[in-house]
Amino acid sequence: xxxxxxxxxxxxxxxxxxxxxxxxxxxxxxxxxxxxxxxxxxxxxxxxxxxxxxxxxxxxxxxxxxxxxxxxxxxxxxxxxxxxxxxxxxxxxxxxxxxxxxxxxxxxxxxxxxxxxxxxxxxxxxxxxxxxxxxxxxxxxx
Length: 142
Known about the structure:
Blueprint: E1 6-8, H1 12-15, H2 26-32, E2 40-43, H3 44-57, H4 62-78, E3 83-84, H5 88-100, H6 105-116, E4 120-122, E5 136-137
Parallel strand pairs: 1-2, 1-4, 2-3, 4-5
Helix pairs in contact: 3-4, 5-6
């Protein structure tokens, strides 16, 4: 599997890439504009984080939750074959990274996924990964 592209972590910009394109700040639009969906990879954990967000929004804003649910299902279809599972190789890398610096489980597994596949982790939360050696890019600071 050739993955020289970027692994997307759920971040504010990533979350709204398709449905809320007009609200992205210019640096994020400039980064994402030339990139095709087939050039991006996401961790299965991103799907879980989005699902969590939808379920948290549902009780107080069912209309937004419905819209986000549709967007999630469309995104899963668009990223078909580009959603990376947690594997033994990633679990090994996760253990190595957590020996360096303990991170929240989802963040550290996404970092391990990026390292295991030689990808760049795209996140707004780049400072949390500084000591791990994971290649990180923050389009909000570009």
